Amino acid sequence: MGYQDFSAGDNCVRGGSGDENTGDIHAAKKLDREEKSLYVLRAKAIDRKTGRQVEPESEFIIKIHDINDNEPKFTKDMYTASIPEMSGVGGLQEVGAFLKSADSLFGTHLGTSVIQVTATDADDANYGNSAKVVYSILQGQPYFSVDPETGIIKTALPDMSRENREQYQVVIQAKDMGGQMGGLSGTTTVNITLTDVNDNPPRFPQSTYQFSSPESAPPGTPLGRIKANDPDVGENAETEYSISNGDGSDMFDIVTDKDTQEGIITVKKRLDFENKMLYTLRVEATNTHPDPRFLQLGPFKDTALVKISVEDIDEPPVFSRPWYLIEVDEDAKEGSIIGQVVAQDPDITKNAIKYSVDRHTDLDRIFNIYSGNGSLFISKPLDREETPWHNITVIATEINNPKQSSQIPVFIRILDINDHAPEFAKYYETFVCENAKAGQLIQTVSAVDKDEPPQGHKFFFELVPEFAVHPNFSIVDNKDNTAGIVTRRNGYSRSKMSTYLLPIIIFDNDYPIQSSTGTLTIRACACDSRGNMQSCNAEALLLPAGLSTGALVAILLCIVILLGKQRKKEPLIISKDDVRDNIVTYNDEGGGEEDTQAFDIGTLRNPEAREESKMRRDVIPETIFQIRRTAPLWENIDVQDFIHRRLKENDLDPAAPPYDSLATYAYEGNDSIANSLSSLESLTTEGNQDYDYLSDWGPRFKKLADMYGGEDSDRD
């Protein structure tokens, strides 16, 4: 009989073998409890001769006993943690005892927790001390400690400052066998960062700062930067700057640059060197996020003294007012002084000032100024009805430095005087019916006046004294600046008197009283029974019965047409000595300055007139050049382009004489009172010409007369 068929159980991995002769069980390979701690084997007893099983199958359970063959392993190879700086560890006596304790290697219950590390041991925790792990600190003393049982790392020193040291590396060991000799161990590294708290106030690196500013610096100009240093970071280092006191607190301001945590000193108001040359400020820097836990360390702010000196510059003159308003009567005489402007040099030197009028604001030179004292006077008559306001600019300039000047607006209001007579509001023409009755109102008239009296207009109406007792009409003043025309008799005959002229005097109520006479035209007309006009033409009574009005109109129209065909056209140029080149002819003769109907400029586009080539009559050419034909120019070309091309052709013409000549492409007209304006007929003398005759040419030449005929209005 022998033992056969040692086999593992169904759910077990084969781990051993048996001796079939003796029944001994042996390990077939190295066992590892951490991989498999229990084996179940089954054995059978079989007769070798018969091969039959002599007894039932037997089961053997084999348990593997643990040995300390595994070291503790941490869950992470490296840990990262942070803790606020200045974290506490307990009372001072406890801390002192902690530092002196021989057990400090294994930690204590004191301190602020930082992080917990965990190590595991694969050995059997129920068998001996193979899996009993104890923690200790190998690196990081005396700043941190570790709880030997829980692995919690705590602070060991009070008031650790981030500003002194921010990063710490702590090495923790985990050892089995309860930390006894012969136990296996493992280590891990913990990187600990101290985070910032607001435990430092801002501090200025110096007690006094000095800056300077020119007196011309406008408000908002930065003068300099100051900074209070704060070793904290982030919002704990945010600083707010302010001016606590000083004689310059109203003249200067300080703002905080959020990016650099600097205080920027700026100008708040206009500076004046002559008024004050030095300012002193007390600037304060304060933390915006103080930590109440550290207020006992002292005030979290600092102050510094800032001195600002004002630099003198050459400033332009300064007027006594921002603007001037002058009122003057419109009948003021020429040369009358109407007001004065005053300016002075604000600098210590007090340079002399001269005054002048900006002629761009007084093109008509109506006003002038005495350059020495700034008195304004009138150079030309005033007319309120034409220009009630004059806005001029006066310039004040330093005599020693003309670059320094300033200007001021002067508003001149022209006060009204009663220099205009009232007149009819419009041209009045009315009618009276032949069957009108006495006392009948036929027309209401009103008046206007260019003057503007302060109390408003008040007009009076009456007939001219010669017609005070008019046999046909009378006037009734309505007391509201209107008057009514009333008939004085019954019946009017247009065959005897077709038109009545009624002169009416209109008075105003101002001083001096002004009056004018207006004539009202009244026509006698035939009316129906309701007073509606039917006919006012007296000649219609004398027309033959067989000749109608339409026939008369047709006859007159034929006469006008016949006369128009017989009109003889006059030549454009009458003078035989005219030397104009390339004359452009057109069929509409201009009337000079008196012609208010502009001729059709399209006639200048006449290709026959423009393309006609003529020989020059102002020079005898030595060689007859071939006449050039230019390309047609009349397709979509304007007059200006046409003239430019003609000028270019004359410039490139080889037959042109080597001296200046005039090519005229327009004609002034025979009715111009200025006659010809051509330079060919101007005087040849090089002396000054007398332009007083421009004043005789009428209002159209008033501007030229003022420019060339007047005297220089700038007087000292």
TrEMBL record:
<dbReference type="GO" id="GO:0000902">
    <property type="term" value="P:cell morphogenesis"/>
</dbReference>
<dbReference type="InterPro" id="IPR015919">
    <property type="entry name" value="Cadherin-like_sf"/>
</dbReference>
<dbReference type="GO" id="GO:0005912">
    <property type="term" value="C:adherens junction"/>
</dbReference>
<protein>
    <recommendedName>
        <fullName>Cadherin domain-containing protein</fullName>
    </recommendedName>
</protein>
<dbReference type="GO" id="GO:0007043">
    <property type="term" value="P:cell-cell junction assembly"/>
</dbReference>
<dbReference type="GO" id="GO:0007156">
    <property type="term" value="P:homophilic cell adhesion via plasma membrane adhesion molecules"/>
</dbReference>
<dbReference type="GO" id="GO:0008013">
    <property type="term" value="F:beta-catenin binding"/>
</dbReference>
<dbReference type="GO" id="GO:0016477">
    <property type="term" value="P:cell migration"/>
</dbReference>
<keyword id="KW-0165">Cleavage on pair of basic residues</keyword>
<dbReference type="GO" id="GO:0099560">
    <property type="term" value="P:synaptic membrane adhesion"/>
</dbReference>
<dbReference type="GO" id="GO:0044331">
    <property type="term" value="P:cell-cell adhesion mediated by cadherin"/>
</dbReference>
<feature type="domain" description="Cadherin">
    <location>
        <begin position="19"/>
        <end position="74"/>
    </location>
</feature>
<dbReference type="GO" id="GO:0016339">
    <property type="term" value="P:calcium-dependent cell-cell adhesion via plasma membrane cell adhesion molecules"/>
</dbReference>
<dbReference type="GO" id="GO:0005509">
    <property type="term" value="F:calcium ion binding"/>
</dbReference>
<keyword id="KW-0472">Membrane</keyword>
<comment type="function">
    <text>Cadherins are calcium-dependent cell adhesion proteins. They preferentially interact with themselves in a homophilic manner in connecting cells; cadherins may thus contribute to the sorting of heterogeneous cell types.</text>
</comment>
<keyword id="KW-1133">Transmembrane helix</keyword>
<dbReference type="GO" id="GO:0045296">
    <property type="term" value="F:cadherin binding"/>
</dbReference>
<dbReference type="Pfam" id="PF00028">
    <property type="entry name" value="Cadherin"/>
</dbReference>
<dbReference type="InterPro" id="IPR027397">
    <property type="entry name" value="Catenin-bd_sf"/>
</dbReference>
<feature type="region of interest" description="Disordered">
    <location>
        <begin position="208"/>
        <end position="232"/>
    </location>
</feature>
<feature type="domain" description="Cadherin">
    <location>
        <begin position="424"/>
        <end position="541"/>
    </location>
</feature>
<keyword id="KW-0677">Repeat</keyword>
<keyword id="KW-0325">Glycoprotein</keyword>
<dbReference type="InterPro" id="IPR002126">
    <property type="entry name" value="Cadherin-like_dom"/>
</dbReference>
<feature type="domain" description="Cadherin">
    <location>
        <begin position="320"/>
        <end position="424"/>
    </location>
</feature>
<keyword id="KW-0732">Signal</keyword>
<feature type="region of interest" description="Disordered">
    <location>
        <begin position="1"/>
        <end position="26"/>
    </location>
</feature>
<keyword id="KW-0812">Transmembrane</keyword>
<dbReference type="InterPro" id="IPR020894">
    <property type="entry name" value="Cadherin_CS"/>
</dbReference>
<dbReference type="GO" id="GO:0034332">
    <property type="term" value="P:adherens junction organization"/>
</dbReference>
<dbReference type="GO" id="GO:0016342">
    <property type="term" value="C:catenin complex"/>
</dbReference>
<feature type="domain" description="Cadherin">
    <location>
        <begin position="205"/>
        <end position="319"/>
    </location>
</feature>
<dbReference type="InterPro" id="IPR039808">
    <property type="entry name" value="Cadherin"/>
</dbReference>
<keyword id="KW-1003">Cell membrane</keyword>
<keyword id="KW-0106">Calcium</keyword>
<feature type="transmembrane region" description="Helical">
    <location>
        <begin position="541"/>
        <end position="563"/>
    </location>
</feature>
<dbReference type="InterPro" id="IPR000233">
    <property type="entry name" value="Cadherin_Y-type_LIR"/>
</dbReference>
<keyword id="KW-0479">Metal-binding</keyword>
<feature type="domain" description="Cadherin">
    <location>
        <begin position="111"/>
        <end position="204"/>
    </location>
</feature>
<dbReference type="Pfam" id="PF01049">
    <property type="entry name" value="CADH_Y-type_LIR"/>
</dbReference>
<keyword id="KW-0130">Cell adhesion</keyword>
